Amino acid sequence: MVSIYSFFLVTLSITWAHAAKFNIINNCPYTVWAAAVPGGGIKLDNGQTWTITAEPGTTRARIWARTNCQFDASGKGKCETGDCNGLLECQGDGAAPHTLAEYALKQFDDLDFIDMSNIDGFNVPMEFSSVSPSCNRTIKCNANILGECPTELKVPGGCNGPCPVFKTNEYCCNSGNCGPTDLSKFFKDRCPDVYSYPKDDPTSTFTCPSGTNYEVVFCPPLTRRSK
Asked: Which positions make up the signal peptide (predicted)?
């Protein structure tokens, strides 16, 4: 008879054997403070990598970069963009503007759902890609959004999304009824595979088989790296 303790160990080993790995790489020529929920946060200088894992069934997960941060020895401080309640190790969502990678693991039909979003704006170019043989998916937003940002969306260090700025149903889809706007099209024209407004699902949500591993690159090269 298998003991409860042995069963627990077997179950735990199976769960973690299928946990997804995320390599988060800073390719920017400047320091960023990577953030992940779940995962926390860490300072990444140019060329550094942070690896996190997430269990099957994880939902509403997100990864982003914060810029121009200052933290004290206790991990409290503030970032110009992407700040998460003044904490180095994030426990909740980041403040706009920030370029966002999102995922939910092992969902309907045993699939991972992945996307990138500019709904809360843009602060750092980003690429979100699968790195397992079972899936070949790359989502990228590497346009000159900071340089071309509409005046009404410009903020220090970033380009805000129209929803955080105007907070109206037209931009935020609070009633569930909305479509693209001129301001959301600014983002969509430059990053066509990335969410530009909340109902942008048909062209912005992608899937990979459960068990896929992933990579998030801040400031990715203009040409795709070979795997």
From this structure: 1-19
